[in-house]
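Quick check before the chapter quiz. The format below is the same one you will see on the exam, so make sure you can read both the input and the output lines.
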Amino acid sequence: MPMILEIHFQEGFSHDEVQLLVDGAVADQATLTTRLQTGLAAIRKLTVSPGAKVHIVLPGHGIKETVPADGAHRYVQVNFENGNLVTTPTNQIPGYL
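Here is the expected output.
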């Protein structure tokens, strides 16, 4: 049964092109910048089947990170720190001011 995976792009993004791949195909893409007041760049929702291969790609930085889509976590927090993507799966909806 398909699930909605919410990907919360948070700190560290500055006019960065981001692609979301599901099973190798581009499912979404955007240019993201973190809003300093909230610490949030964007929330993207993907409808995926559990076990789908989900990747976050920053083509301009040559970065590709795997995101779990196993049904165990509905949310993924993503931060761009020191040239690396840091992903944190969670069941708690992230909060913002």
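If your answer matched, good. The mean pLDDT is 95.
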